[in-house]
Structures are given as C-alpha cells and as structure tokens.
Amino acid sequence: MRILIFPLMLLLALLLTFNNFHSQLALPLWRQAFFSPDERDVSQMLFHYSMLPRTLLSLLVGAGLGLAGALFQQILRNPLAEPSTLGVSAGAQLGLTLATLYAASWGETGQQLATLAGAIVIGLLVMLVASGKRMSPVTLILAGLMLGMYCGAVKSLLALFNHDRLQSLFIWSSGMLNQNDWSNVTFLWPRMLLAVLLIALMIRPLNLLGLEDGVVRNLGMRLALVRFSGLMLAVVLSAMLVSVAGVIGFIGLFAPVIARLFGARRLPARLALSTLTGAVLLLISDQAVMLLATVWIEIPTGAATALVGAPVMLWLLTRLRHQQVSGSERSPARQKERALTPALLMAIVLLMVVMIVLALFSGDALSSWVDSQAVWQFRWPRVVAALAAGAMLAAAGTLIQRMTGNAMASPEVLGVSAGAACAMVLLMFLVPGDNVIWQFPAGCLGAALTLMVILLLAQRGGLSPTRMLLTGVALSTVYGTFLTLFLVSGDPRISSVLSWLSGSTYRVTATQASWTAALALLLLLLTPLLARWLTILPLGSFTAQAIGIPLKRSRILILLLASALIAAATLCVGPLSFIGLMAPHLARMAGFRRAMPQLMVAIAAGAGLMLLADGIGRVIIFPYQIPAGLLATFLGAPWFIWLLRRA
C-alpha cells in the first residue's frame, strides 16, 4: 500500500497542473506559448511569464525544502527538524525585511545577503540553546519556534511604523509563489544544483552522522567540522528558498517522513526521495491554491501548507518517546521560602504607587508635571489598562502553571492568548459594526476552547509538560496562520487590527479602562477561592485524588477563570506579552512558592512589568510609540529561552 502513495501523489499533481494549465490556455497552444509566446495574446503571455515559472518554482522550492529538511534531520538526528520549526525561515524573513527597509540601495544582492545573515544567526542561536541537551528534538523545536515568534514580534513592530512599505512584502513572504517573469527560477536552479553537488561530495561523512557521536569520533572523523559544515549548507539553502518564495512551512518536515514510509533507509536514497517528495507536495499545494482561487479567493501557499501541516505535526510530536522538557525549577530545598508579611506587602504597595505616579507624570517634557488636564485625559486610561492587563495575565499564568504542574506553561507559550485573539479578530471580520460587547465573550470562548484542546490531547501522557508545550505550539501555528490570512486579506481594518495585535494601550478610552479595571478586580477576587486546589494540584493527579480533590471539576473551574482573565487582558494588550510566563517565575525566584503568596506577588510583578513596558514604549522613541505588549515580548522571549536552557 505504501508503494502506491507516491504514484498517487504524482498523479494528483499532474491532474491539478493539467487542469490549471488548460484553464489558462488551450492545449494546442501550449508548445507555442512555452517557446515563443505571441505578445498579442494575453493568455499566452500569462501562461509563459506567470503559470510556467510559478509551476517550475514550486517544484524547485519544494525540492529544496525536502532536501534541507532531510539534511537537518540527518545531522541533528532529529525527526522534527526543518527550516520552519527551527526558526531558520523566520530569521531569513526578518533579515529580508530589515534589508527592504534600511538597505534598499544595496539592491537584490544586499537583500540576499541579509536573508542569509538572518537565517544563520537564528540557526546558530537555536543550536546554542539546545547544545547542552545533546540537540534534544523537543528543545530544538521549542527554541526554534520561540525564536521564530520573536522574529515575528520584531516584524510586527517594523510593520507598525512602515505598514505601507511592508504590506506587499508581508503578503509575498507568507508563501506566495506568484511570478511575473523567469528571474527567480534562473536565480534558484544553478544555486540549488551547486548545493546538491556539495551534498554529494559530503555524502559519506553525512551518512556517518546518523551514528552515535562516540562511534563517529572513534572512526577518526572530525565531527564538529562536518556537523557545522552540513548545518551551514542546510541554512544557506533554506535562506535562498525564503528569499525567492517566502516562508513555506512543514514541507521540509513531511517530505523526509514520507520518504521513510516509502522504505528509504540509506541516506542517499532518503535525500533523493525527500527531494522528489517535497517537489510533488508543494506542487500539489500550489496547484490546489490556484484552483481554489478560481472559485473563492487566493490564499498564500505557505498558509495552506501550515493549515494542513500543523495538525500532522501535532500527530508526529505526540509520538516522540523519551523526550521530556522539564518545566520544574531547581529543588525547593535549595531555595529559602519567604512569607508575605504585612511589612513586605506594604512595601510592594508603596512601590506600585511610586510606579503609577511616575507613569502618570513623567514624560517627554517638564510641562507634563503641571499639565494635569492632559495627564488625566490621555494617560490615566493607559496606566489603568496596563496595570489591569498585566495583573490578569500574571494571575492567568500562575493558575495555568500550578494547574498543570508545568513552570514553562503560560497563556502565550500554550497559544491560549493567540486563541483568544483569533476569536476576537474573527468576530471583527464576520460581525461588522459595533461588536464591542461581544468581544469579551468571543475571547473567553477562544481561550477556553484552546485550553480544553490542550488538556484533552495532553491527558494521554498524564498532562506531561512536553506534550502540553508541543500541543500549544502546534495550536499557535494554526492561529498564527489564520491571523496572517486576515492581515493579507486587504481589509481596510487591517491597520487597527495590527496595532491591537501588537499590544497597544494608546487607543484605550476612559470607558474601556474603567470596564477593564472593574473586570480585573472581579476576576482577581475570585482567585483566593481556588487556593486549596492551587496548592495541591502541582503535586500530581494521584496525590490530588488521594486527598479528595475533584480533578475534573477543579480543572474546569480553573480553566474557565484563566480563560476569562486571558480574554480580558488580550482585549487591552494583544496576544503576545509573556507577562504570564515571567511574573510567576519572578515570584517563585523571590522565594514565594506557596499558592497565594506566589499569586499575589506575581500579580504585582505582572502589573508592574506591563506598566513599565507601557511607560518605556511611550517615551523611548518619542513621538512614536512602541506597544506595551510588543515591548514586553522582547523581554519575554529571551526569558523563555533562558528557562529552556536552564531546565
């Protein structure tokens, strides 16, 4: 049965291609349009300069992705490694974005060099994070996807200030293969041929990399040199593919997997079959997107592959064995536990008051100290919204971490904030007009469904930290793809949605700030009712059941409260801030490990961090402003990487 899979894929690709070609141009005219198109015939010109190069480019890019994925997987002995999951594609895209904005005079060569530099930097960082864990598959995936999210945050910041200049670039870089000439094909094929020749020369040492490191060293091979050379070759190949086609994910993951299903065990056969399979997979995807465009709308090919690939990636991830990412901190016995005394509580309150006063009355001019009308009209809503959002995200992060017993879980990492944001954006597009009253229920529903799916899929492994994190990562990929489709749809509301997704508070009105503060106060007052559950659940399911904790009911109630907190905060600061990850850890590192002291200190830390991010974002590049959620992300992603490195 497996032998028939590739012929069936090839047949499907040929049928789709023939149908699209025939829709564009009648069969008798194909030969003339290929060699010497009639310039007076628009159909022949489109066939020659658009349809044909797009088809050949999809074959080249798919083949390159399959080859790069097989290389990554062989060198790292990691069945989940590929350009997108390792963050290499995101780094290349960020490099291209920076070159487009700040090095336009360098021309095409400068853009290619910037793309290559971005891919190499991110690839090296991912390997550095995972180097202490013997290139663990799970660690590599989490580090790569987190650095990819960080690159996405930087691109979002650039897009806020250069939306018009980058709109077309973002549409293209989401995986659009539309072509107007043969330039990308002529650029790519000789370089890919050179890469194939270099890989062929390295085939023997690359084949030995599939063995254990000790065995390879005993054979006399310079392991570090071969591994580094092979990885750099794969990174350069990935960067070239991104520079001509944007980010197209998961082809590099699936092609080697399918090659193994076909029975390719030796490296040369696996590389060749992965290359062919990648070409056929991307050809099917792109031709299906072209066919869909004739009856509906045209979506980026990269988005289509992500929508199909993320669930399959989730299916593959859950079958990894003996790969655990520890979410626990160091042994509590090494840390001195602190009590939240009244004196310490008063000090925290005093510090918060000082920060609020500074946020209200400090600014870009001395007149802000005396211009009370401007202060109360423009700043107090932002201050209140930042405080409330930071406190709610910190509380939600603490609830999730204690419920799951996973100190690396948070609304942002698990994709819960992205689920809430996706539901809200979907509401904005599907329900025109004044839909403010429905945004909070929609966000709650999106967050609750995301958490529920994570719990259901991770329950087989006893809610293991690894399975929960990887499930959240896969869901984040799906939500990110949906949001990308919204952003490239051409809707006039894109600019405001992009600003909101970045976590901006400068559009918060007095009414919105008041409602957010009231909602935050109400939800936070409910958290002490869960104190006993939050104390016992981190000890594990068996212990909690033995003590008499109703596991199902307790998790559902905590889930609902966390979802409400996340939805309310996301309305103010968008889906990315990492406050939900940082604040509970700050409280734990300060010595507050019991449920309620940790929760209270985390709430104060989250509110203070978000207020600090909002204040810095307001003045650092005045008169322009950096959204608070985006600035907090710049701090949060490195924090997660540090935790991953330390775990």
What is the overall pLDDT average? 81
Architecture per CATH nomenclature, i.e. the level-2 architecture of the largest domain? Orthogonal Bundle
Order of helical and strand elements: HHHHHHHHHHHHHHHHHHHHHHHHHHH
- Class by alpha and beta content: mainly alpha
Low-confidence stretches: 322-334, 364-370
- How many beta-strand segments? 0
Q: Determine the strand fraction and express it as a percent band.
A: under 5%
Task: Characterize the biggest β-sheet.
Answer: none
Helix content: over 70%
| CATH fold label of the largest domain | ABC transporter involved in vitamin B12 uptake, BtuC
How far do the termini sit from each other? Answer: 43 Å
User: Considering the protein shown, what is the CATH homologous superfamily of the largest domain?
Assistant: ABC transporter involved in vitamin B12 uptake, BtuC
State the CATH class of the largest domain. Mainly Alpha
Whole-number total of structural domains: 2
What does the radius of gyration come to? 26 Å
Instruction: Note the quaternary state here.
Output: single chain
Protein name: Iron ABC transporter
Membrane topology: Multi-pass membrane protein
InterPro entries: ABC_BtuC-like (IPR037294), ABC_transptr_permease_BtuC (IPR000522)
Subcellular location: Cell membrane
